[in-house]
Write a structure and sequence with these properties.
With 261 residues, this protein is mostly helical. The termini are far apart. A hairpin with a 2-residue loop joins strand 2 and strand 3. It is flat. The strands form two sheets. A two-stranded antiparallel sheet has the order 1-4.
Amino acid sequence: MQSGDFRVTYASDERIFETRLPIVALVGLLAALALVPLVAGTYWLDVLNRIGIAIIGAIGLNILVGFTGQISIGHAAFLAVGAYSTAIFETKAGLPFWLAIPLAAAVTSVFGLVFGVPALRLKGLYLAIATLAAHFITTYGIIHWERMTNGVLGFNVAPATVFGLPLDSDARIFYLIFALVVPAVFFAKNLFRTKIGRAFIAVRDRDVAASVIGVSLYRYKLLAFVISSFYAGVAGASWPTTRAFVFPDAFSLLVPSTTWP
């Protein structure tokens, strides 16, 4: 006599949720999150908004470090690029926030690609030093490129608006943040069910064996760096919507290891 759940078809093997219970739980969680602003105070909404942004950034870092086995101790640089790109797009280019955020994430991905090409030829301590260099180079550029970044003065960013409704309260910002968190989590969950995600894991577990079976180490390490940078860009781009002010000291070297923002 058999008991439990068995996958007997390809369709069942490809399902995200094995039973209906996780689906019901997920729907319940999303419904509960939708009701949170109605019952939570300003303090807890601010905390939850910070948690939401941190979730996006942590997922990106986990893709690079946890699932691909690379080292990055200068991840705050990519958060800074995302935040400053959004501030520049909104304040100087006059773009709406819904366009500024994806553009900022794309810029951060390119930034990650530029640093990833030389850095990922290194391993271990040398890779850590390369990512650390990325942080200091970025910080130096932000402080001294005053014409574009306003240097140490930073940016004042006006509250974003959705259909004419300003996101000028923690309750309204909450819905924006978790509208970004939900697809970010969903994408990451599905990523490791794909060929790319499994290649990431193979590289992490044993890069030599992965190379022997045809996995391009450089290609997938670089791709992980770009995806991780994209997530960091989204997290950084969310900063101006919550704090309305962007400044260099907000992106210190300790950011990934502390509660951010």
